[in-house]
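thread: overnight batch results

M.L. [08:02]
morning all. the overnight job finished for the chain we discussed friday. pasting input first so we're all looking at the same thing
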Amino acid sequence: MPLKRPSVQWPWHGLLALILLGLAIGLWVATKRVNYEWRWARVPQYFFYQAEDTQAAPVAGTINKINPNGAYSQVDITPANGGQAVSLTVETDTLKVKIGDPVAEGDGIGAQRHWKIGPLSWGLWVTIWISFVSGLIGLFIGLITGLCRLSPNPALRGLAVFYIELIRGTPLLVQIFIFYFFIGTVLNLDRIVAGIGALALFVGAYTAEIIRAGIQSIAKGQTEAARSLGMTAAQTMTHIVLPQALKRVLPPLAGQFISLIKDSSLVSVIAITDLTKSGREIITSSFATFEIWFTVALLYLVVTSLLSQLLFWLERRFARSD
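M.L. [08:03]
and the structure it wrote out:
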């Protein structure tokens, strides 16, 4: 039997490279048509930057001594009313005085520099934190609601159906407004709590349907076998049905949590400084519109891609455990 010849892949790789090159050329042509000047050099400072803390004279007096020590200098001030000299440490290149200069209380002597987190880094952290907390709460809500959806109790089943249809039938933006301006006002909730609550309720409704489908995909024979062995309904669900169902629903749950990270950008409408709101604030001061939005989009892509790879790894681990 003749061996099957391996298919040639390089033409398809070449086609992919041509498509990506065409997209890059299209972007370049578009920016030329609108006469846009790229300012990528401004972007790094919005991740981390060096801030200067001005060191002011604590007392009125005279500069008695300046002792340089590499990048830093120690400045001694002799108080005008006598007393012990006061020392300040500043960076040498920021010195504003020399020996013998009189200074008043509050006059700037120099500055000390230190690294600070920029608005893009802070906004990224807020987005990840809000998404993680709301996703965790939403998973718990979805698990409880999914079980209630399958309950023989009509009250529990009816409440679960009402909650799911209400959340899935209204826009997330409207839910955030209602949760913040109505529920948040009545319960005196912070905007962070209101944003997390709205996102958790939103993702919980979709997670409930995913979990319900996963539970129903398990063969009824396994439940009957567990009950015939003397296991209660709760034990059967906990030890037999749910472990298998969660493995099956991991891919759709992954997609839901990835969507949650992107949907979290809507909390910026209630003044939560997430990644999207940070980007808008930077644009108003830097006028680097395209650079900031491309950077924000790239940060969302990096976070969702890392989460996707993590969930793929978990899925493979669960598959091997079977």
